[in-house]
Amino acid sequence: MKSFGKLQGTHLFSRLPEAVVTQYFNHCHTRKFRKKEEIFRQEEHADYIYMVLQGRIRVYLRYPNGKEFTLTILEAGAVYSGHTRTFGQALDDGEIVFIPVQSFRKLLMEVPLFAMSVISVLGDSLKNSINTIESLVFKEVNKRLYQFLYSLAFASGEEKTATFQVILGLTHQQIATIVGSTRQTVSAFFNNLQKEGVITLEKDKIIIRNFDVIAQRAKDDTE
């Protein structure tokens, strides 16, 4: 596997020596993907752990009636199990590595430092899942949309005190499946923000012109 350097560049493997990564993951293989490509199907790679090296992947459920529900967006460095009944679609061009579950399990058992990193990553994943459930159950749709936009802005890593852009890579329908709403509601939400001058909509990206408004409206009422 030629991407040991990319593995070590991720949060999960950053503390491991190159020799350890090479020893345990010499049976891994990588795959490059293009935007909009379907990367995995439900239970297609049950014996592997996925790790995103570059790009973003939308993880979603697909139902026989054609409806979809987006569970999460995997960013570079994120890991996901191949035994689930979900689908994965690329939001950008990128690269993914398939790590054999057996190798992953062996490293967990034999290298305590790696186990601690996995616990940290799983803790973040669980927190995000709980936030999603809480948002769907208790919060109004506009609040969910503000918090979704805030999370995208926060993850962009750009300065939040000035105008900056967020690469979206999602259709309004896909955003609707993430926040539990409809495409019409999402479109109206963004159009209204654009009329206020808070954002400017462009192809595949949003220019945020007033981050303070987004941050304020994304706050929970109890804060």
Protein architecture, described:
With 223 residues, this protein is of the alpha+beta class. It has two domains: 4-136, Jelly Rolls; 140-218, Arc Repressor Mutant, subunit A, CATH 1.10.10. It has eight helices and eleven strands. It has helices at 4-8, 18-24, 101-110, 112-138, 141-156, 172-179, 183-196, 211-218, and strands spanning 29-33, 38-40, 48-54, 57-62, 68-74, 79-81, 87-90, 94-100, 164-167, 199-202, 205-208. Strand 4 (57-62) and strand 5 (68-74) form a beta hairpin. Helix 3 packs across helix 4 and helix 5 packs across helix 8 (211-218). The longest helix has 27 residues, at 112-138. It is globular.
On the 0 to 100 scale, the average pLDDT is 80
What's the arrangement of strands in the largest beta sheet?
1-8-3-6
Question: How do the helices and strands follow one another from N- to C-terminus?
Answer: HHEEEEEEEEHHHEHHEEH
User: For this structure, what is the CATH class of the largest domain?
Assistant: Mainly Beta
| Cα gyration radius (Å) | 19 Å
Amino-to-carboxy terminus distance: 48 Å
The CATH architecture of the largest domain? Sandwich
How much of the residues is beta strand, in percent? 15-25%
Provide the domain count: 2
CATH topology of the largest domain: Jelly Rolls
> What is the SS-derived class?
alpha+beta
> DSSP helix count?
8
Give the tally of β-strands. 11
> What is the helix content?
40-55%
